[in-house]
Amino acid sequence: MAPKKKTKYSFQFTRRIRTNAFGWHGTSTASKAIKDAIRELKTVAKFDPLASAEGAVVLIERMWKALQHVDSSSGSIGTAVDKGLDEAAAIFEKADLDPKTRQGYLERIWEAIQEEDIGYYDSLPDRWPQFCGDRETMARWADEFKEPTQSVLSDPTPGAYFRGTALCLSCLLALQRYDEIFEILAVERNLLFDTKRYGARALVQQGKLDEAIAYAKEGSSSVYSDPRIDAFCEQVLIDADQSERAYEEYGISSSERSTGLATFNAIKKKYPDIAPKRILEDLIAANPDNPGKYFAATRKAGFEDLALEIANSSRVDPKTLTRAAEQ
After folding, report:
1. How far apart (Å, rounded) are the C-alpha atoms in residues 63 and 112?
2. Half-sphere exposure of residue 275, counting CA atoms within 13 Å on the CB side?
3. For residue 157, how many other CB atoms are within 10 A of its CB?
4. Complete DSSP assignment for 245-288
5. Along the chain (327 residues), what's the average pLDDT of each consecutive run of 10 residues?
């Protein structure tokens, strides 16, 4: 059977998503441009999946160059990029590409990952199995990157780094080659959780939940918890229908936000079966030096008695009290 030919299509998003297209205050317009590009890719995918796959690659090649001068401090543009990459990967995955064409696209995406130096594409290697599409392609990339991955992780030199590490480990994980993952991770120097999480995920996939949690937490500070590790452990338990344990052990530590109200809402969203008043009481108990942080949350949730108790026993921002009195 002859390989399917690529279809040429002139994508409109290339007019907006181009090098240095957006300035420092361009978060809103850039986010909209990404959404519009994804919308166009989805429309094309309905009648020409091969063209949409190529368009997804073009978007990945162009996106970081268009955004490199946008203010990323709020995290909004990073969220827009990550969602765009998710959508682009899904569009690419659905296209029935012949092996030669797929390999060419993968090499182009890998080149974009190496060129990008802001951090927008840090999650792309984790999606590599999705881009590969089949086990043979995954195995080829994993085997090619296995030696340099092992070499850099064994290197005691501070800052030793290889961009293909996550790509290699994510492919090995998808292939269920667990022994090789732990062989690579069995190094003397302490590994960042970004790397160790592949070992923890390998244990989860084998149904070894408690071992996965212990592995994730191994070597972490006993004084200060790492929100990323806590969030991982929490999700492991939630996925295993152990929500009560997840809440008690990690619900608060993994959900800290900039305001008490945002923290409360984050926990409430994850644990709809936990009584809101219990969540607020637990938050206050966990922050005895600053219970006033949750004054707005208690009022918003309708617990006036708890809000009054906080106001009488702790420091609450006078402006917050004034607004509460006026309502």
Report:
1. 10
2. 5
3. 8
4. HHIIIIITTT---SSHHHHHHHHHHH-TTS-HHHHHHHHHHH-T
5. 57 96 96 98 96 97 96 92 96 96 97 94 95 97 97 87 95 98 90 94 97 91 78 97 97 92 95 96 89 87 85 60 47
